UniProtKB/TrEMBL annotation:
<dbReference type="InterPro" id="IPR012340">
    <property type="entry name" value="NA-bd_OB-fold"/>
</dbReference>
<dbReference type="GO" id="GO:0003697">
    <property type="term" value="F:single-stranded DNA binding"/>
</dbReference>
<dbReference type="InterPro" id="IPR040893">
    <property type="entry name" value="RADX"/>
</dbReference>
<dbReference type="Pfam" id="PF17659">
    <property type="entry name" value="RADX"/>
</dbReference>
<protein>
    <submittedName>
        <fullName>RADX protein</fullName>
    </submittedName>
</protein>
Amino acid sequence: SKLTSLGQLEMTWRSRVHFHPLLVRVLHKSRLRYYGKPEKKLDMPYQAYFEVADGSGMMSMVLWNSLCPEWYNSIKVGTVLLLEQYAIKTSYPFKTQPTPGDSQMKRFATIEISLNVRDPPTKISIIPEEMVKPDWGLPEVKYRFITRDLPNNHSCDVIGLVTFVGRAERARKREHGEDFWLYRWAHAVDGTSDQPFILELFATSQPEVFEHIHPMTYLVCTQMRVVRDLTENPSSTIYLTTSNESQIFITGWHKGQPYTKDTKVKNFIQWTKTQSEADQMKKAVIGGYYPFPRPPNNFLKY
């Protein structure tokens, strides 16, 4: 059938009601959001954002309500989608924006693709990777794996061998509220420094991964945000925290992920082959209370 592009959509969306099918690749995936309230009688009040791209640029795509439990786990970063009978809406202005791996990619930020079970009922098809043709011009997923240079509020991807993982802890989302964020601290080393990455890992929509992070697993975290506390000693309080678009992968989940082709990932795998498992196991720690950033050494400073 006749296809359209994201660039054409942005130019013509106001003058159309029905749109031609779209062929796009998923570049980023947000955590699943529950927006149910007691007074609203919605069966499945869920929402998830994806950033999708074709040869013309990148745009947000929103999956609504009952489409979320049906499609959320099937649509992964790197998945190619054929979308039919979708709606176009003006973008929600306060949405988080992931940092694209390709800084040259054009971002269409004024509108977003809305996928719903009705008005109109969207048809979603996943195209297997072996059937994707080069002449479709779909961009590859690109990453920003870092080793040590960590500017503040920068988004990046990291890979490392887990040497410490703390217990799961809870923090209130709002003061006096009843909702909690679940998170745990972890350390990971990648062979480029004696110092580990300090990672604050919030439970994303991947409970099967979050609950099984343990020492000696290969950990990949994408779209991590650098947090640097400049008020104290800056070098001692740099850590990485998950963002709304972070994805976490551990040993057993890496097969088929787009990052396996990345040079820095291949270099890390080569480094792990030079390491003694017994030596790394001696340094591994699990559980316990991990206060971070650490309090000052004496009460006067505190």
